[in-house]
Specification:
alpha/beta; 52% helix; 7 strands; 5-stranded mixed beta sheet
């Protein structure tokens, strides 16, 4: 691997270094990237004809556009006096932090060809391929936000990255933190939440994104680059906050579910207690099933954000205190009151299902109003779960019909 040039990127305040390396060197490096980095984009379906032609071109020694990598390490300090060997060592040390910004499909094509020739008896063609040179750009000193920004600008017009994937990249550090007993599960874990305080990471980040945008709907890709600026602002806002905003959202939502579970004494759905038959299966059959869903998380996030904007809440931390005072029963018999409230909740969601044009979005709207009513001290349903359900449904009807 040979260092060719070094240029500073003023937009993201990072250094871009152009290396020249053999295909064999890149094959080994890309193996580490694709196996160790959970957030590296996976293979997407593409034209087999185009990549078959690229394989043929590689065999005869064509030059392909540079592949662009980045190392997620904002603490990196560039020094013009650093020797080339030190950069090489740094890359080896930080292999688990490397991500491919541009050239993922070219990487897969190179790897496919390498494996095909390795499995064949044509050792001379394999050796020629191994020794061919590639140009590899590597960004040093980038934050997660920088990586996302550069990835989006480099891949404009190509297969779009899902919004969930973008947010997972930005908040991946939380998978390595102590979250006070909360466990966040990646899709790559191939495991669904089964215990209290376990959540799908993608659902939590979707809910937090709704808090940032004050919008219960999923983000539109056309606004992604604008949201990068908001995330930059968030980064500086968090430094002045007594706790990390993402963690505050996570703690508040987790506490909400746990408090409701405790106050309801392990409530379980019983269809014999319903006044009318449901059109389909209930939205949930226990507390976890009722609330551990992305539609609920986005409604929770957007509602809290709006209440802060309206000065009805000082910060997201205020919710942590209010949750303790949520009233689940309006009768002397707590069990009957709890059952009535949750049955009302399930019934209203069943009515929404019958009339909704986009069920997920309509549910998100309902939950947005539910949490606004529940935590708005100026409202008639303040901290009263059953009344909040009724008010939220009434507002949903007025909004949609």
């Amino acid at each position: 691997m040979e260092l060719i040039s070094k240029i500073h990127d003023n937009r993201i305040n990072a250094v871009n270094i152009l290396f020249e390396m053999s295909i064999e060197e890149y094959y080994l490096l890309s193996t580490e990237i694709l196996t160790k980095n959970k957030f590296q984009r996976r293979r997407v379906k593409s034209s087999s004809t185009v990549y078959s032609l690229l394989k043929e071109d590689l065999v005869v020694g064509c030059i392909i556009p540079p592949i662009v990598l980045a190392i997620s390490d904002k603490e990196f300090k560039d020094n013009s006096n650093l020797k080339e060997e030190r950069y090489n060592e740094y890359i080896q040390e930080k292999q688990d932090k490397l991500i491919i910004l541009d050239g993922l499909q070219r990487t897969f094509t190179i790897r496919d060809l390498y494996k095909e020739l390795n499995d064949s008896e044509d050792s001379s063609r394999l050796e020629n391929l191994k020794n061919q040179k590639l140009r590899i750009e590597i960004y040093f000193g980038m934050s997660k936000t920088d990586i996302l920004y550069r990835m989006l600008t480099l891949n404009t017009g190509q297969t779009p990255m899902s919004m969930r994937h973008q947010i997972e990249i930005l908040y991946s550090d939380y998978l390595e933190k102590d979250l006070d007993g909360v466990l966040l599960l990646m899709e790559s874990d191939e495991k669904s939440p089964s215990n209290p305080s376990e959540y799908k990471f993608k659902d939590i980040v979707e809910g937090f994104n709704s808090y940032l945008d004050r919008d219960y709907l999923p983000m539109d890709r056309s606004t992604v680059l604008e949201n990068i600026k908001s995330l930059d602002k968030l980064s500086s806002e968090s430094k002045n906050h007594k706790d990390d905003l993402f963690l505050s959202y996570l703690k508040a939502f987790d506490k909400f579910i746990n408090i409701l579970s405790c106050k309801s004494s392990g409530w379980i759905f019983d269809d014999n207690t319903l006044e009318a038959e449901l059109s389909t299966s209930p939205f949930g059959k226990d507390i976890i099933g009722l609330f551990r869903k992305p539609q609920v998380m986005t409604g929770f996030g957007s509602a809290i954000g709006k209440l802060i904007d309206f000065n009805a809440l000082g910060s997201i931390d205020d919710v942590l205190v209010l949750i303790d005072d949520i009233n689940l029963s309006e009768t002397e018999d707590n069990a009957i009151g709890v059952n009535n409230g949750f049955n009302n909740y399930i019934t209203k969601l069943d009515l929404i299902r019958k009339t909704a044009t986009k069920i997920g979005n309509d549910q998100r709207l309902f939950f947005h109003y539910l949490f606004r009513e529940l935590f708005d001290k100026k409202g008639d349903a303040y901290l009263n779960f059953n009344r909040s359900v009724d008010e939220a449904y009434s507002m949903y009807i007025r909004k949609t019909q």
